[in-house]
């Protein structure tokens, strides 16, 4: 029988089912591919397009579920094709998270990625002699790992890494491909990422406790009666990473990963509240405050960085704050300059598109020219027309100490130490100590105290004590008579309040520590904090010694710190 005759034998209804499926499949691919053409910056232009894409994928997913038997018999639908649809929906949810910073969409992405694995949608791919299908499977694993890392599902990550390793070995054995080195690098990167934390928290059976560093309900110290603070709220954040040799995975360095979690609330499951992103009415949204919107920029060129900065600045609502986090290699001025302007102290390198000289330090050979991709303090001056909160983690962070507030808007810079004591084990590849203090201050405290593991019970006891310290730091700040008002104007926002209290805890800890003896070992800020009322306050120092006593590491700190200066 001819193929035409065979087609004539197909009932009209089943033929329409196949036609409708093909239409939805083609439409979904067309819309998905169009996502690449949307601008990455700006929060409004993309929403209607994303909504249409979700709409089509929702219909496609339900359609193949309702008509599976017909599609199996008449279309020849394979399980890996169902897996592809589920994978695309998972990608949509993940990208919606990136666009909105709403962590609940990560749970939705996890659900679809997890279903692919549980239902073995890709299991038959290895039997087909098509390397491009195997690559789809490998990419699915890599994407699933990223989502699990962001959700702190480390047990699942470890299982996925083992499965991915087996898949890569099978792939490279069967097909003589040129991308073997690239896939092995993916494995190495994720393995290093998992091991980045310098301290392990252990259960009684020695299994590792997974700790989350997102903002919990009890995370930030509460504002108490009588505390006079500003009403600004953090709306936008640019998280920029370009540290040489730092562990990264999927264009996310350890520092970027830690900072993005410090700017998010614990995820909640939205399954009962919405069908798909972009479609719910505002009345159905959760009542709690949203996360600040974030841009994650890995090694951006100057033009890319300025474009994103301008977009954030333009869309910043009234009474809102823009945060800029820079984790990057320092660029130092060479020679002496006749002037001391905002471009004469160097800055940080946001994109290294050539060989780095001597590791961390970049020196221009031609002293009359400046590094093209260096972000100088002066580059940020135009954006100080609105409230700006800057964090610089770099070997030349002090360049930003020479800021000038031209427009009278709230402006604060938190600056990392420019060097760490040689006696401290070098952990720079596994992330900066300063950023670790801002993300997980107890883990950072344990690390500088020489501890590498701890029992869960003691960890929770120390966390409770650290919450007490944060409450006291909040009181020190708000009761200070000489503190710059910029700090208090930012203190009304939960995220910024927590970052400020952690910064002061970090600075006080380092100033009391016996091996942190040079000025460059200490964090600084612009404007300067009144030391005697904050980072060198005797009441705070007593608390830090108490915490050290709980951990039995009091010997690494000076007892009478002020007398030692």
Automatic annotation (TrEMBL):
GO terms for biological process: DNA-templated transcription; negative regulation of cell migration; negative regulation of Rho protein signal transduction. InterPro entries: SCAI (IPR022709), SCAI_metazoan/Viridiplantae (IPR016607). GO terms for cellular component: cytoplasm; nuclear membrane; nucleoplasm. Pfam families: SCAI. GO terms for molecular function: transcription corepressor activity. This is Suppressor of cancer cell invasion. It comes from Macaca fascicularis (Crab-eating macaque).
């Amino acid at each position: 029988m001819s193929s035409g005759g065979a087609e004539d034998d197909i009932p009209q209804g089943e033929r329409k089912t196949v036609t409708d499926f093909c239409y939805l499949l083609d439409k979904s691919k067309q819309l998905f591919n169009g996502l690449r053409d949307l601008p990455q910056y700006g929060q409004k232009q993309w929403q209607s397009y994303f909504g249409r894409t979700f709409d089509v994928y929702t219909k496609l997913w339900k359609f193949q579920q309702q008509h599976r038997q017909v599609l199996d018999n008449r279309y020849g639908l394979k399980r890996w094709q169902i897996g592809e649809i589920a994978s695309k929906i998972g990608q949509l949810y993940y990208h919606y998270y990136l666009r909105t910073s709403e962590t609940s969409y990560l749970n939705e992405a996890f659900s679809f990625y997890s279903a692919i694995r549980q239902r073995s949608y890709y299991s038959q791919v290895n039997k087909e002699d098509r390397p491009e299908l195997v690559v789809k499977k490998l990419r699915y694993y890599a994407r699933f790992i990223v989502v699990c890392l962001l959700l702190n599902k480390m047990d699942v990550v470890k299982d996925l890494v083992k499965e991915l390793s087996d898949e890569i070995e099978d792939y490279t054995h069967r097909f003589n491909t040129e991308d073997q080195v690239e896939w092995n690098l993916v494995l190495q990167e994720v393995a290093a990422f998992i091991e980045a934390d310098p301290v392990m928290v252990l259960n009684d059976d020695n299994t590792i406790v997974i700790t989350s560093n997102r903002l919990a309900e009890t995370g930030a110290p509460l504002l108490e009666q009588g505390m006079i603070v500003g009403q600004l709220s953090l709306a936008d954040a640019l998280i920029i990473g370009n540290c040489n040799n730092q562990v990264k995975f999927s264009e996310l360095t350890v520092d970027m990963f830690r900072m993005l979690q410090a700017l998010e609330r614990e995820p909640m499951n939205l399954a009962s509240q919405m069908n798909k992103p972009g479609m719910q009415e505002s009345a159905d949204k959760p009542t709690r405050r949203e996360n600040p919107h974030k841009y994650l920029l890995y090694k951006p060129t100057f033009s890319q960085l300025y474009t994103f900065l301008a977009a954030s600045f333009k869309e910043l609502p009234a009474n809102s704050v823009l945060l800029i986090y820079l984790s990057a290699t320092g660029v130092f001025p060479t020679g002496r300059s006749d002037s001391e302007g905002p471009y004469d102290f160097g800055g940080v390198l946001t994109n290294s598109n050539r060989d780095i000289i001597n590791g961390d330090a970049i020196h221009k050979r031609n002293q009359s020219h400046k590094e093209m991709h260096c972000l100088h303090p002066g580059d940020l001056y135009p954006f100080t027309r609105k409230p700006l909160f800057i964090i610089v983690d770099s070997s030349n962070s002090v360049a930003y100490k020479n800021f000038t507030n031209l427009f009278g808007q709230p402006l604060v810079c938190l600056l990392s130490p420019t060097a760490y004591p040689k006696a401290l084990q070098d952990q720079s590849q596994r992330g900066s100590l300063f950023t670790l203090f801002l993300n997980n201050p107890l883990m950072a405290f344990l690390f500088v105290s020489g501890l590498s593991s701890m029992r869960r019970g003691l960890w929770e006891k120390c966390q409770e004590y650290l919450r007490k310290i944060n409450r006291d730091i909040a009181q020190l700040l708000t009761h200070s008579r000489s503190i710059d008002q910029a700090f208090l104007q930012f203190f009304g926002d939960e995220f910024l309040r927590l970052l400020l209290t952690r910064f002061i805890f970090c600075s006080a800890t380092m100033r009391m520590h016996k091996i942190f003896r040079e000025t460059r070992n200490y964090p600084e800020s612009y404007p300067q904090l009144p030391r005697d009322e904050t980072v060198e306050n005797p009441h705070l120092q007593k608390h830090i010694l108490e915490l050290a006593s709980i951990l039995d590491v009091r010997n690494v700190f000076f007892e009478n710190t002020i007398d030692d200066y």
